[in-house]
Amino acid sequence: MSKISAVIITLNEEKNIARCLQSLEEVVDEIVVVDEFSQDQ
Question: What angle do CA 29, 4, 23 make, to 5 degrees?
């Protein structure tokens, strides 16, 4: 069976990233987050 990966490119998404990751948990096999030099935490 094929695996599905999600790549999320972020910039200052501290307030939204948890919700985004939670929405993908049961849909994909792998989540890769790429942070583009965010100023937030």
Answer: 60
Q: Find, among 5, 41, 6, the residue nearest to 20 by Cα.
A: 6
Instruction: Please calculate the CA angle 16-21-27 and round it to the nearest 5 degrees.
Output: 140
Return the SS3 of 37: coil
Which tokens belong to 17?
A: 């990233």
pLDDT digits (tens, 9 = 90+) for 17-39: 999 999 999 999 999 999 999 99
Residue entry with tokens 């910039």: 11
* pTM of the predicted structure, to 2 decimals: 0.81
